[in-house]
TrEMBL record:
InterPro entries referenced in this protein's UniProt entry, alphabetically: Bact_Solute-Bind_Prot2, Peripla_BP_I, SBP_2_dom
Species assigned in the record: Ornithinibacillus xuwenensis
UniProt domain Periplasmic binding protein: residue ranges: 37-322
Location (main, coarse): other
Protein name: Sugar-binding protein
Length: 371
């Protein structure tokens, strides 16, 4: 019922989108091909953001609405250039997932000066008042789901726990870690888990709530910078450094799918690791195959179709001089940014079929080993 409702809502939004898009197009045609909505995404190197591009394109299919999507390739300088390009094309709304949440402040301030409405997409832009809205998944819930999965699958006590995190330049990395820590910390304090790879986390193991600086200190040790090769190198270093009692059956908090696969490859090839449970997020195709093959244990599915329709729905409201609907707000260090938040779903071998195939997110033919 819930799923049908979701599909129906999505369908309705998509249809509405097309009508409004057509209308907007005729309005803006006088501008001679001007772009109404500019979209800036962090990098094409991670499948996660290519997914977003595809879903934006699918949402806009069949209309000649004037949008443009640019990628920043992991560079704040390139991101600024992208925003400037879009400003020069006359955009009214900017949808942006920043590479670096603080560094993006200058770009969105430039957009704001031109009267453009700024929507932060998935990642919050911090320490600036120049962000009007934020569309996001519940990122703290992502971390909680990852931590809870490790707890539910831990057997006995003294289970070695390897912690990894995202890039400190991404506010989400803190939210994911905050969520994971919230559920894991009591289980570290009671001896279910023993931290294997972070002296900073070990020193804070009796604190249930960490300050941003404390989390920063842990991230400083266990960040992957969202980079699978950095994740691989760190995992190798950690497995070389630990004593044998930190091997055997282990639990691994990996922040997303790209880094989870890299870390899983390292742990999977160490003969002293008898079993590992490893988390992920994004439901990337390669990770779904890893899950089916028993090489990754879970992922957190964030339905990008919903995020895209929320962001575009907001953009259209703004273009039509309506106030977008929001469900809460996020403090970005300078102001409370009005936000619309979406829930996430835990996916493992058991529910790949129902959550990802039956819902039409992926095709069964894209995988092998589906039951
Ligand atoms: C996103 C994740 C993504 C990560 C790395 C985060 O901000 O929320 O979905 O895996 O960045 O790109």
């Amino acid at each position: 019922m819930k799923k049908t409702l979701k599909a129906l809502t999505f369908g309705l939004v998509a249809i509405m989108l097309m009508f409004v898009l057509a209308a907007c197009n005729s309005e803006s045609s006088g501008k001679g091909g001007a772009v109404s909505v500019g979209i800036v995404l962090p990098t094409k190197d991670e499948p996660r953001w290519v997914q977003d591009e595809e879903r934006f394109k699918a949402a806009l299919d069949g209309s000649d609405y004037t949008t443009e999507i640019l990628f920043s390739q992991g560079s704040s300088a390139k991101e600024k250039e992208n925003v400037e390009t879009l400003i020069s094309k006359g955009i009214d709304v900017l949808i942006i997932a920043p590479h670096d949440g603080a560094a993006a402040g200058a770009s969105v301030e430039a957009a704001k000066e031109e009267g453009i409405t700024v929507i932060a997409y998935d990642r919050l832009i911090t320490d600036t008042e120049a962000v009007d809205y934020y569309v996001t998944f519940d990122s703290v819930a992502v971390g909680e789901a990852q931590g809870q999965y490790l707890i539910d699958n831990a057997e006995g006590t003294g289970v070695p726990l390897y912690l990894y995190a995202g890039a400190s330049s991404d506010n989400n990395a803190f939210l994911f870690f905050e969520g994971a820590w919230k559920v894991l910390q009591p289980k570290i304090a009671d001896g279910t888990f023993v931290i294997a790879n972070s002296s900073e986390a070990e020193a804070l193991k009796d604190k249930s709530e960490l300050t941003r600086d404390e989390m920063g200190a842990i991230l400083g040790q266990v960040t992957t910078n969202w980079d699978p090769s950095e994740a691989k190198n760190k995992a190798e270093t950690h497995l070389t450094a630990v004593s044998e009692d930190m091997k055997g059956d282990v639990a691994i908090l990996a922040p997303n799918d790209g880094t989870a696969r890299a870390i899983a490859d390292v742990f999977g090839s160490d003969p002293a690791i008898s079993n590992y449970v490893v988390t992920g997020q994004d439901a990337e195709k390669a990770s779904i195959q890893y899950i089916l093959d028993g090489k990754q244990t879970m992922t957190v599915f964030k339905d990008v179709r919903t995020l895209v329709s929320d962001a575009m729905g907001m953009a259209i409201d703004i273009l039509e001089d309506k106030t977008p609907e929001t469900t809460g707000s996020y403090d970005n260090g300078a102001t409370d940014v009005k936000a619309k938040q979406t829930d996430v779903i835990v996916v493992n071998k058991e529910n790949v079929q129902s959550e990802l195939i039956d819902s039409g997110y992926y095709e069964a033919s894209e995988f092998t080993g589906l039951e």
